[in-house]
Amino acid sequence: MLELDQQTATEVYATLTGHRTSLSALLDQARRSGSEPAPTWTVPVTPRTVHRLEGLRRFAWDHGTAIDFLRPNGLSPTETIFWNDFRQSCGDRRGAASGAWRLAHDLFDCIRHFRVGGSKAGALDVSIDRAVLIGVYGGEHVGDAAILGGVIQDLHERRRTERVTLFSHRPEHTRNLADSLSLPAEIEVLPYTLGRVRRELSQADGLVLAGGPLMDLPSVLVKHLTAASIAHSQGTPFLIERIGLGPFKRELSRRMARRILLLADGVSVRAAAALKDDLLAGIDARVLTDPAFDYLSTRSELSRLPDRDRAAVDSLLEGAADGPIIGINLRPIRHQWCPDGEEASKRAYQGFLERLAKGLIRLDEGSPRPARYVFFPMNPMQLGQSDLASAYDLQRLVNGKVDLRVWEADPTVDGVLYLLRRLDSVVAMRFHACIFAISQELPTLGVDYYPGMGGKVLDLFSDLRRENDAVRIDRFDLDWFVSKMRAKLEFGLDGGNSARMDS
User: With pLDDT > 70 as the criterion, what percentage of the chain qualifies?
Assistant: First the structure.
């Protein structure tokens, strides 16, 4: 066993960029002593290290080293939530059997309450003082937090909603994100169990499924279908507001999604492309912008900016003001959605990373003022796959040849906006990373992460009439990226965007 101190545990990215660090010295010592693979590293879990564990774990894997994490010390409630999510990803899978049992139980409840459905005239204008809100809450990242803010803002303005009961699959995580928002209505977050849904709907004025996608998540779809059926049986209005559709692989999941849509009294989607899906056949659905845009439009003053986010961004950008600053957001992808198979998807993703790394290097060639690249995570959590895994892969590929800085954090909405307002341009994979950047009027290039078919990132840019600024991951071209980014930055003329906000 070799115990790393806090400083050494934070040196992964400095080591990857070629700096002499305590971590590199430790590796050199292991090589000289012939003790590779190195002994197991034990790592302190503290406020200083907790958000850096993903990079450290991957660094240890690359060097054939096992890693154990010590008992957490001094974590805040927010950091504890982050740590618990990370810890469970390290091999704690004991909930699988109980999850299957809960799905079977919920499916039985769904069958008991099932209704065929049908629209009620006038429901689109209904007032909802007390709303029950459902969706894919509990797996959120900062983008979903902005969705939640926009949904509640819209309910308050259009439906005169004053109280919201939000059901979440991980209520402690959702409460934490909700606390970072500026909301116009009272909100209570409860575990998404059908018994609680039944009780709350008996006292509510409406059920709202809003934000995020209706996609191939059977356990979630079963709950949604049951909740919709309960609302229908009680005569409670059920509205579906600005959702995404898909992707789906299971026919049964599509059928459940179709039934949910048929039970709704009003449906709106967040992309025009969704109207072509036969899930909406015969349904008078409207197209409205993603709710995150609404919330982000209210953040002219960053009144919910934590000191930790401000300090982290200021430190990250220290010494970076003399050239263009380009934000990067990437995410790992789930390969099962690719129509050409998982191996083709893995090749597409790896090829994209390699071309992007070469593009960052080429962008600096011949420039008197090299760019600084800042990787920012929208989702650092393991549920939904951590963006910090992609940050590590990209840093390895650029191999210290460009100034790439990684924000290892679990940022708030205002924290991400604080960073974006100091950038000149952004290239992003996460749907809401694109939305955040576009909302700040930043020149933005989008990369759609569904190889072989495309998805919501392409749909977003299409709806905004910016089709030429987005590309599918398997069609990402090095020359396209460099020429596009140079044009957006006026690279070689003034070295950056003069509209950058430095405060």
Answer: 90
* Structure confidence at residue 501 (pLDDT): 54
Beta carbons of 39 and 2 less than 8 angstroms apart: yes
Query: In sequence order, what are the residues at sequence separation of 6 or more whose Cβ sits closer than 8 angstroms to the Cβ of residue 93?
Result: none
Angle, helix 218-234 to helix 96-113, in steps of 10 degrees = 30
Pair of tokens at residue 393: 């892969």
* Burial 448-485, CB ≥16 within 10 A → b, else e: bbbbbebbbbbbbbebbeeeebbbbbbebeeeebbebb
Q: Indicate the residue type of 146.
A: A
Mean pLDDT check: name the lowest of 64-68, 187-191, 338-342, 499-503.
499-503
Q: In whole angstroms, what is the distance from residue 432 CA to residue 155 CA? A: 21
Q: Which two tokens stand for residue 363?
A: 């962008």
Q: What is the tens place of the pLDDT at every residue in 430-474? A: 999 999 999 999 999 999 999 988 899 999 999 999 999 999 999
Domains of the chain: 2-75 (no CATH), 96-296 (3.40.50), 307-489 (3.40.50.2000)
Q: How far is CA 159 from CA 65, 137, 163, 264, in A?
A: 56, 21, 11, 16
Q: How far apart are CA 267 and CA 287, in angstroms?
A: 9
183 vs 28: which has the higher pLDDT: 183
Rounded to whole angstroms, how far apart are CA atoms 488 and 107? 51
Which residues touch 228 (CB under 8 Å, ≥6 apart)? Answer: 117, 207, 209, 238, 259, 260, 263, 264
The whole model's pTM is what? 0.91
- Please compute, for residue 469, the number of CA atoms within 13 A of its CA located in the half-sphere on the CB side: 23
Q: How far apart are the first and last CA of the chain?
A: 46
Contact between residue 106 and residue 402 where contact means Cβ atoms under 8 Å apart: no
Residue 104 buriedness (CB in 10 A; 0-12 / 13-18 / 19+): exposed
Q: Which positions ≥6 away from 16 have C-beta within 8 Å?
A: 59, 392, 395, 396, 399, 400
What span, in angstroms and rounded, lies between the C-alpha atoms of 452 and 340? 7
Report the alpha-carbon distance of residue 167 to residue 472 in Å, rounded.
34
Q: Distance from CA of residue 326 to its chain's centroid?
A: 19
User: Which uninterrupted H or E stretch holds 155?
Assistant: helix 142-159
